């Protein structure tokens, strides 16, 4: 399995706070059957903090030198919080994309729809970017119809595993399962932040999906979709202008 959305890189955002936690999180991923982890720290952690691509690359290089003994593939990206100048920064190569490909993991404001998301997706696609929307089931203003609209704009939909278990409330759980029933889900990721409350849990999540929706759906999401995207982000590395 591949975990495309994680906060395992230590001391950069609200995820892992130290190397010990990161090591424990990687061990849990391996125990769950994960063979590839994409590290996606928040690049906009607060109004005063913006992680530049070169800074994230430096943090990753230092981290990788300490964990390279693990039998697992580690790739670097970021979780991008939407701002009005996002497209400009992407074109200029200032933002870390998934493995420096044209794939981006983007998070919109979870509390209110502060932009025309369909128009944002259109502009990103027109400029060659492939957008993965992070956990839309957790946005207060979201319903299945809007998620379908995003997919029709070419976006991929990533659901947080914890949403399926109700960890983010009844509404997020309801929407996440509705997305499965309507075949709107492209990826499931752990969005893990630590080893206690928001821990890697793809094994139990896959078991839940098999039980509720069948092996075919589980294989499509955890194997076929995930591996196709992995191949893409490995194949088209160095897409953006840097």
CATH class identity: Alpha Beta
Radius of gyration: 17 Å
Order of helices and strands: EHEEEHEEHEHEHEHHEHH
What would you call the quaternary organization? single chain
Characterise this structure.
The chain is built from 9 helices and 10 strands. The protein has 242 residues and is α/β, with parallel strands linked by helices. The protein has one domain (2-235): Metal-dependent hydrolases (TIM Barrel, Alpha-Beta Barrel), CATH 3.20.20. A 5-stranded parallel β-sheet has the order 6-7-8-9-10, sandwiched between helices. Helix 8 packs across helix 9 (215-235).
Compile the SSE list and pairings:
Layout: E1 2-6, H1 19-31, E2 36-39, E3 44-46, E4 49-50, H2 53-67, E5 73-76, E6 79-81, H3 86-91, E7 103-107, H4 117-126, E8 130-134, H5 144-152, E9 156-160, H6 161-164, H7 170-181, E10 187-189, H8 202-213, H9 215-235
Parallel strand pairs: 1-2, 2-5, 6-7, 7-8, 8-9, 9-10
Antiparallel strand pairs: 3-4
Helix pairs in contact: 8-9
Key terms:
242 residues; alpha/beta; five-stranded parallel β-sheet; three-stranded parallel β-sheet
């Amino acid at each position: 399995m591949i975990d495309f959305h994680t906060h395992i890189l230590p001391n950069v955002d609200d995820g892992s706070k130290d190397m010990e936690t990161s090591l424990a999180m990687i061990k849990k991923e391996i125990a769950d059957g994960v063979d590839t982890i994409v590290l996606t720290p928040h690049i906009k952690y607060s109004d005063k903090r913006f992680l530049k691509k070169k800074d994230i690359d430096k943090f990753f290089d230092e981290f990788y030198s300490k964990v390279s003994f693990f039998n697992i593939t580690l790739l670097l990206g970021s979780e991008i919080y939407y701002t009005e100048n996002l497209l400009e920064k992407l074109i200029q190569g200032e933002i870390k994309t998934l493995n420096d490909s044209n794939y981006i993991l983007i998070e919109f404001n979870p509390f209110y729809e502060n932009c025309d998301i369909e128009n944002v997706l259109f502009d990103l696609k027109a400029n060659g970017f492939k957008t993965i929307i992070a956990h839309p089931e957790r946005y207060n203003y979201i319903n299945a119809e809007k998620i379908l609209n995003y997919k029709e704009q070419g976006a991929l939909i990533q659901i947080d595993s914890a949403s399926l278990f109700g960890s983010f409330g009844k509404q997020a759980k309801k929407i996440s399962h509705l997305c499965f029933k309507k075949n709107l889900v492209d990826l499931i990721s752990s969005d893990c932040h630590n080893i206690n409350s928001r821990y890697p849990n793809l094994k139990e999540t896959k078991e839940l999906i098999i039980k509720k929706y069948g092996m075919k759906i589980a294989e499509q999401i955890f194997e076929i979709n995930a591996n196709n995207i992995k191949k893409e982000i490995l194949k088209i590395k160095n897409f953006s202008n840097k």
